[in-house]
Amino acid sequence: MVLPDFDPQTHLAELQAGCQALGIPLDTQQLAQFELYYRELVEWNEKFNLTAITDYTDVQTKHFLDSLVALPLVANELGESIPPTRPLHLLDVGTGAGFPGIPLKIAAPRLKVTLMDGTGKKIIFLREIVAKLGLTQVEVVQGRAEELGNDPGYRGQFDLVTARAVAALNTLVEYLLPLVRRGGYAVIYKGASAPQEFIEARKAIDLLGGEMERLAPVKVPFLDEQRYVLLIKKQKPTPERFPRGQGLPRKKPLG
Ligand code: SAH
């Protein structure tokens, strides 16, 4: 497919510079993976409507760099280098076309990653892109967070559970915290509403066994919008009754 606005040499140098600003090293193989990811995303988008953003510069800032912005924070919190060397197990809930899970896996190849979404066509794309990028230790699962949170194969199993643009924080914590192992973290990507959403989710976080460790304003390279990364540590087991069924986390958020 011809991509008139995409100039690999210039653009990939920009991506590398953006990552450098975040303290994330990328080698030529990783840059080639981001290039292929971009090409596949745009091509599949023609049929599958995976993202509203297709211009390279926008994908680079709003998807790739935005997804990577949590990596230094998490590494720092865990006392790990960037990328972390431990094979941490990360679950990305509502990953859509793979954000933030796939950029994190490309930048931190030692991570074990589970990509999860409720929508079948996203799953088809994800399986294809994981194979094309040659990513190993990546599992793709179709499911809903509320259901996996009650499945013993998933509940309490993950060091890190990420989500971007999936739900309001008071709903999201009921999706994520049951899946986090004790001592692990929910890693949540939010925009300017984060401080207000935190106030509305305080009680839910407490009920679910979590504790807010960081509500960190972050700077996404080349992007002039406010972003936050929230690190919620799971201090206590989540009570058995959560997550609730029948869409209640969304219809009647805790709090
Ligand atoms: N995280 C991606 C996609 C955001 S769109 C990004 O930042 O670009 C929200 C995605 O979450 C959709 O793909 C939708 O299918 C999925 N989703 C929403 N609620 C969900 C739930 N309860 N369980 C699993 N997936 C969910």
Q: End-to-end span in angstroms? A: 49 Å
| Count, helices | 10
Largest sheet: 7 strands, mixed
- The named CATH superfamily: Vaccinia Virus protein VP39
Work out the strand percent.
Answer: 15-25%
What is the domain tally?
A: 1
Q: What is the rounded Rg? A: 17 Å
Number of strands: 7
Under the CATH scheme, the architecture is 3-Layer(aba) Sandwich
Mean of residue pLDDT values:
97
CATH class, named: Alpha Beta
Structural topology:
Elements: H1 8-22, H2 28-48, H3 56-68, H4 70-78, E1 89-93, H5 101-107, E2 112-117, H6 120-132, E3 138-142, H7 145-148, E4 158-164, H8 169-176, E5 180-190, H9 194-207, E6 210-218, E7 227-234, H10 248-251
Helix pairs in contact: 1-2, 1-3, 2-6, 3-5, 8-9
What does this entry look like structurally?
With 255 residues, the protein is α/β, with parallel strands linked by helices. The protein has one domain (13-250): Rossmann fold (3-Layer(aba) Sandwich). Helices cover 42% and strands 20% of the residues. It is built from 10 helices and 7 strands. Strands 3-2-1-4-5-7-6 form a 7-stranded mixed beta sheet, with helices on both faces. Helix 5 links the parallel strand 1 (89-93) and strand 2. Helix 3 crosses helix 5. The longest helix has 21 residues, at 28-48. The relative contact order is 0.13. The mean pLDDT is 97.
